[in-house]
Amino acid sequence: MKELPEPSRRGPRVWKLTAIHVVIIIAFFGLLLGAYLASRNTNKARPLSNALSNGTSVFAPTTILISLDGFRADFLHRNITPSLNAFVQAGVSPEFLNPSFPSITFPNHMTLVTGLYPESHGVVGNSFWDPHLKEDFFYTDPARSMQPKWWNADPIWVTAEEQNVRAAIHMWPGSEAHIGDIEPTYVDKYKGHELLGNKVDRILGLLDLPGPLDKDAKPESPRPQLIAAYVPDVDRDGHLYGPNGTEIRSTISSVDSMLGELFSGLEQRNLTDIVNIVIVSDHGMATTSTSRLVQLDDIIDMSLIERSDGWPLYGLRPKNDSDIEPLYNHLKQEAAAMEGFDVYLKDRDMPERYHFSRNDRIAPLWVIPRTGWAIVVKEEFNVKEAKKTGQVYHPRGVHGYDHEHPLMRAIFVARGPAFPHTPGSKVEPFQNIEVYNLVCDSVGIVPKPNNGTLRLPLKPIGLHDSMPPTEIPEDMPEDVPEDVSSTSIESSETIPSAAASSTTVTQVAASSTPASRPAIATTEAAAPSRPVIHDDVSPEDEDKDGKDTNLWWDWVKGKLDGAKEWATGLYDTVSDKISNTAASPSEGSD
Ligand SMILES: *[C@@H]1O[C@H](CO)[C@@H](O)[C@H](O)[C@H]1NC(C)=O
Ligand SMILES: *[C@@H]1O[C@H](CO)[C@@H](O)[C@H](O)[C@H]1NC(C)=O
Ligand SMILES: *[C@@H]1O[C@H](CO)[C@@H](O)[C@H](O)[C@H]1NC(C)=O
Ligand SMILES: *[C@@H]1O[C@H](CO)[C@@H](O)[C@H](O)[C@H]1NC(C)=O
Ligand SMILES: *[C@@H]1O[C@H](CO)[C@@H](O)[C@H](O)[C@H]1NC(C)=O
């Protein structure tokens, strides 16, 4: 009997306690849920503040940033870029964008996405020595270059992700380097030979992901607000064939068609006035020539040099610091006596406008070629020999020079709701340190401290139509027939026979290649960084990215496959020269 009331008596008490606990727990979870929803709302609310609808989907401020590597500003005036020219007429742009010094790919791609001079973001070259890490950076070796330690500033995808703006980065240099331990929501592994059509599909596919207010929105695959994509083609063929060659014309027009596809893809989605597009390039390109080479090892004793950084510039680090001053004085004298290069001490007379001194990764002594010139050591190219045999210097096009030289000029063209100007507006030229702020503004994120000063909205000075380009720079002269082909055709037996059949050409190239490409093994300590490099490129990378992917890199790496392609280039050159004189039909198409 006693047993029964007990549980019944205890029952209500236990129930009451349980109820209280349950209420507390529910309240607790309610609070948690509320906090979660609130935080989610603020995350969403900010970017959505300037949202626009294309009729069926709401878009938070969205910007596509595309970099066309090596697209020189005046390529727009060759009548082969209808899509880009129409884009200029629809958007806002300066006549050209100045790169930063040195005008090469990795430093400038980092500047474009940080707003910092290379001395401040730390990627001071495509290859350089870090005296603190005691290691070499080299850009075609991802195993090394894609370690975060090299990348000392936060790029725009980090800025965006930190502010809850999702970023998708397609092959932008550095995007696989885990910078700041923050990954873009989407990051595409670098492939040198990605079809241009695939790049367009990728970008449009990202826009087609459900937006934040769409019913089928998925948190694990959000639609990105920042899409940055990299297009290597024009740079690659500019190196291979030269910026004034006929071959590069088809590359330029295929990149233009790619942009045309992108623009019409946006139009089909009713996104032309909703999504911003910013098209930039990183630098221009200048024609090289065997008559514009500086044989560095004829000028200084290379055995005094521990390492040289930065190609086509030469940043010299002597073995003994006490050699810096004498080497500088000697080079300075030679520079005054001959054409083609300037010499600077990083900490003394490096031009202020280069902003190229405040970093230990910058070598103490610099030999900087004048635009269109190249500096070579004999193991890669013997100038005297080449002039005798009529050998043509490769690469046919080079950049890296004074970033304010007209042939180094890049482009910036923008269109979309963040650029609400009269179509075809023109702004004053500016430097690419400004691009980061502008793109941040276009998606509504707060930029980190940087060297840019421009902000949106841009301030047009007029219309392109009423203000034609002030000047279209003339390229440097190429190796001209009377210098090379006439002498070589008359004096050399191999070259005419090479032109007769392509089989022979391969042989010619095979025999001339060892002399012209960087030697494979470097025994001299004084070797420039170029030949040393390819030894470190793993065969794995080569299989993935090398082969026919990137002839320029192959050439740099001294790969035989590349050499074969190089031979084709030589063949083209030779047959060019012959068709010039004999009007041969072999070189009809471009
Ligand atoms: C296209 O977008 C505009 C806003 O930019 C909107 O007014 C228009 O209705 C849309 N058109 C269609 C067909 O949805
Ligand atoms: C709006 O954009 C979405 C995503 O790209 C697309 O699927 C949709 O068809 C577009 N709406 C219109 C009216 O074009
Ligand atoms: C560097 O050069 C100076 C002057 O020629 C010499 O006294 C010194 O021993 C050298 N140092 C080394 C490490 O070779
Ligand atoms: C560039 O910006 C960085 C970061 O704000 C700053 O540290 C550096 O001093 C600036 N450089 C110049 C030349 O103003
Ligand atoms: C560049 O090419 C054009 C046409 O292909 C030619 O007329 C011009 O002379 C070339 N310029 C130089 C500097 O070689």
Question: Summary?
Answer:
The chain has 590 residues and is α/β, with parallel strands linked by helices. The protein is globular and about 80 Å long. The longest helix is centred in the N-terminal third of the chain and has 44 residues, at 5-48.
Notes on the structure:
With 590 residues, this protein is an alpha/beta fold. Among the domains are: 52-286 and 404-463, Alkaline Phosphatase, subunit A (3-Layer(aba) Sandwich); 293-394, Gyrase A, domain 2. 38% of the residues lie in helices and 14% in strands. The protein has 20 helices and 23 strands. The strands form eight sheets. A six-stranded mixed sheet has the order 9-8-10-3-11-20, sandwiched between helices. The longest helix has 44 residues, at 5-48. It is globular, with a radius of gyration of 29 Å. The chain starts with a helix and ends in an 8-residue tail after the last helix. Residues 244, 474-475, 477-478 line the site of one 2-acetamido-2-deoxy-beta-D-glucopyranose.
